[in-house]
Amino acid sequence: MSYLDQITSPTLLLDEKICRANIKRMADKAARHDMKLVPHFKTAQSHQIGDWAKEYNITEVTVSSIKMAEYLSGQGWVNIHIAFPFNPLEIPKLNKIAAKQSISVQLINAETTQMLADQLESSVGFFIEIDAGYGRTGVEVTDFGLIEEIMLIAKKSDKLKFKGFYLHPGHTYYMPDIPAIYEQSRNALGMLKNKYSTEFPNLVSRIGDTPGCAVMEDFEDIDEMGPGNFVFYDLMQAELGGCEKRDIAVCLAVPVVDIKKNRKEILVHGGGVHLAKDVLVGENGLKNFGEVVYLNENGWTIPEKKSFLKSISQEHGIIKASDELLAKVKVGDLLGILPVHSCMTADAMGEYITLDGKKVDHAEGARV
């Protein structure tokens, strides 16, 4: 039976071949630059996809929450890193994980560091997150007083182990000059490594955004990369130049429930609860919540003429349709939608279906 015959409602499709190719390409790039790839699994959030990653010599993984760390612990990872400023209310959960799984956290202030030093029951590693221009979170790169206060508190603890510096230049998502941002990031991490490597000879530097890791070829002496979105990619990454649309490994299958040919619009069952509401805005001001692909037995094809979701609400999606699409679609058909932001779409759906009809687990859905 075709995988398409199983679909009666919005379903997130996963092309294993494309996903594996994306993982291999980034693993090869890391190896080419003598860097360790520690992928951020906030995108995939899956045991099965984690097993695929291990086939490409990936041994450590990054997550964005302790819930995700709980889900992936005990799966053979050498270490799991929580790349979010640690929430001290979750120290009891951290202690449970750390008793059985090597784990590290991200620190940006002395208060949380002290609470961990006082309450940890097992050894836990930590990175100091650095802000070198993004402005979202992290210790400012020149705030040596705070950096050294965190280090001093940890040094007095037999449980907190300093691993290095983590930097997420997230402004690569909305600022066009990625090379300039990376020069800023390399300089920041290089300066910190030079300053503290005598005291901490094993410290590592890690950088963690997909746009930069995908397009850059000059990482200087950064030790590790931790991109996440690259396993699936999406329309946002394609617009940033990090991938081609053919590299996008997931699409949302949606049923067609009505067609308004006079308005060149198609109503589908697929809205914000499935795709989230990330949007691209074209030069003409038109909003794009996802682009149509044609589903077939082998996956999907990208049409020559673009059709896209012009608006979405909770369950509804309205496609602005090309003449090509209108000529071939009918009520009851299935269309595919390439997501604007695959991480959010996967999180919303909580499960994947492969092109051979097999379910793949996701942390937000049922374990399969």
Automatic annotation (TrEMBL):
One of its GO terms (biological process) is D-serine catabolic process. It comes from the Bacteria. Residues 249-354 form the D-serine dehydratase-like domain. InterPro entries: Ala_racemase_N, D-amino_acid_metab_enzyme, D-ser_dehydrat-like_dom, D-ser_dehydrat-like_sf, PLP-binding_barrel. SUPFAM superfamilies: PLP-binding barrel (SSF51419). Gene3D superfamilies: Alanine racemase, D-serine dehydratase-like domain. Residues 19-216 form the Alanine racemase N-terminal domain. One of its GO terms (molecular function) is D-serine ammonia-lyase activity. Keywords: Lyase. Belongs to the DSD1 family. PANTHER family: D-SERINE DEHYDRATASE, ZGC:162816-RELATED. This is D-serine deaminase-like pyridoxal phosphate-dependent protein. It comes from Algoriphagus antarcticus.
